[in-house]
Amino acid sequence: MSPVDTLIRRHRLRAVELLPWIIAVGAFFAFGDYLPLGSQILIMILFALSLDLILGYAGIVTLGHSAFFGVGAYAAGIYAVRVSGEPLSGLLIGGIAAAAVGWTSGMVILRTQGLALLMLTLAVTALLAEAANKASFVTGGADGLQGVDIAPIFGVFRFDLFGRTAYVYCLVVLFLSWLVARHLVHSSFGQSLIGIRENVARMHAVGSPVRRRLLAVYTMAAALAGVAGALLAQTTQFVGLTVLGFQRSGEIVIMLVFGGVGRLYGAFVGATLYMIAQDQLAKMDPEFWYFWIGLLLVLLVMFARGGILGLLDRMVRR
Amino acid sequence: MTPALETVGLHKRFGALVVANDINFRLEPGARHALIGPNGAGKTTFINLITGRLPPSAGRVFLGGRDVTVLPQAARVRRGLGRTFQINTLFRGLSVLENVALAVAEREGRGGDIFRSAGSRRGVLEEAYALLQRLQFAEDALTRVQELPYGKQRLVEIAIALGLQPSVLLLDEPAAGVPSAESATIIAMIEQLPPDIAVLIIEHDMELVFRFARRITVLVQGRILVEGTPAEIAADARVREVYLGERQHG
Q1: To the nearest whole percent, how much of chain A has pLDDT over 90?
Q2: Nearest Cβ partner for B164 among A183, A188, A206
Q3: What is the pLDDT of chain A when averaged over all its residues?
Q4: B198-202/B32-36 β-pairing
Q5: Helix ranges restricted to H, A52-113
Q6: Which residues from B are below 8 Å from A206, CB to CB?
């Protein structure tokens, strides 16, 4: 087989890539009591997946990704309160609003790199969080946005008490988003992002419009994060200020690092394990559960660079 | 004939320090031209001014007769300006083939393709692979750059630049840091560069310079001291003074 074929083959869908979906569908039937947690996990996977596009592929180090999650959540929430409870248009509004914020802030902050960029991502989130706090006449401020009432999907599927509809809704949205993200990272565009991550000076020297590429992926990742936020707003029928908080930005990075950065499936593994660990640890040790998460992260970073998937990779290769 | 590359009155100062002083330089199509000079003469600055990494304080840069002075780096590359780096500037975690393919994709304007499927990358990869075969580098196509010995990494530098099919190629000390036993393959690759590319090489290895170049420009303290054929340069008293003087101090 020629080296060209080998590289092309790497883009093909492998059987193992279907595993998350089999598990997700299986979980629907196996863990009927846990579906609300399941929906939360699916939402965080989508959020982490959107982060992987910019952090893992393009190498944009950010601690402000919750900005887009929060904007998506508020946009969808306010849309439901003020305009219409129709969920799909709400999702779209959430994605578009987040993309708009991503594009606008990206225009300014992507001129910088490294620590300056990191600080600016934090600053954007802080600005938005404060704006949401102050604009309580639309956002509900510190009390949160009340009265988010979501109509049945297609006018047929009601959001039930057990979270069945919500789970399937989140799963379908995640699946479609995954299709997009997967296509993206395997395209020439996605390869050029990896080039930018690996060596930005060389990408300039081969004539790549680096800033435009970064802005494009930043906007797309913002849109996906916005959709994730919109899903949260719609399925929990509430939006609180925490959607824009530093903690959420930090947590999503931790989830992605847990799973493995720059491999698309790190988001699936990391978000799932983190959310389940959080749920279990909070039950066992309600006061100190965050300590255990921290300890786990320290161990993982010290002994398993590349996250859990990186660890698996090395075990398979041996 | 229109020069492949020309600078007119190129000037660069950092505060009071003048690093490029009124440089008028012509690179003819298909040239084999060397730029030499003692350390700190401003050779790399000159390269950075040509490629657009640095903006000049005054003067103009022409590429194929067109003024590119205000164009950003990437736009100059798309107009045929390729370069290599003195210090390896590679996609270390990617294979050699992927390194070259990134350059080919950008040249073909495919680097931003989002909507086409991954299989459409075949054309780009085939072309990159064909280039590696021509350079007798095909057996390392799937090797990650960081796993290659240093000398071969220097070859990847040149291979990426050739993937751009440049009309002007700037080689910034291509053999830098390579032990002389391994430099033969680099010299061989440089000597086999397509004859239609105008090549400007910066190099300290005088043996390589005099073997390769048909014209030599000597840069001293940001200024062109003299330009001529290798024989003229070798015989030039001022050049000798610069180099011998340096040697006496060293």
Answers
A1: 77
A2: A206
A3: 93
A4: parallel
A5: 66-82, 87-109
A6: 77, 102-103, 106-107, 160, 163-164
Compare CB distances from B125 to A4, A187, A205 and report the shortest one's residue.
A4
Task: Name the pLDDT band for B134 (thresholds 50, 70, 90).
Answer: very high
Nearest beta carbon to residue B122 from set A4, A203, A209: A4
At residue B228, does pLDDT exceed 80? yes
Which member of A7, A199, A204 has the closest CB to residue B74?
A: A204
Please give the ipTM for the structure prediction: 0.90
B233 vs B226: CA distance, rounded Å? 8
Contacts of A216 in chain B (CB under 8 A): 112, 114
- pLDDT over 70 for what percent of chain B? 97
Instruction: Give pTM, 2 decimals.
Output: 0.92
Within 8 A of A189 by CB-CB distance, chain B residues are: 111-114
CB contacts < 8 Å between A and B, how many? 127
Please give the Cα distance from A233 to A244 (Å, whole number). 12
Cβ atoms < 10 Å from Cβ of A150: 22
Which letter does DSSP use for residue A123 in this model? H
Query: Could you tell me if residue B67 is left (phi over 0), alpha (psi between -120 and 50 degrees) or otherwise beta?
Result: beta
Tracing tokens 């989140």 back to the chain, one arrives at A170
Q: What does CATH list as the number for A18-317?
A: 1.10.3470
Strands B215-220 and B58-63: unpaired
**Structure confidence at residue B250 (pLDDT):** 38
| CB contacts, 8 Å: A188 with chain B | 105, 110-114, 116, 120-121, 124
Q: Where are the domains of chain A?
A: 18-317
CATH number of B5-249, picked from 3.30.420.40, 1.10.10.10, 3.40.47.10, 3.40.50.300: 3.40.50.300
Domain boundaries, chain B: 5-249
CB contacts of A195 in chain B (<8 Å) are 91, 94, 102
Q: Please give the residue of chain A at the shortest CA–CA distance from B83.
A: A205
**pLDDT tens figures, B74-121:** 999 999 999 999 999 999 999 999 999 999 999 999 898 888 777 778
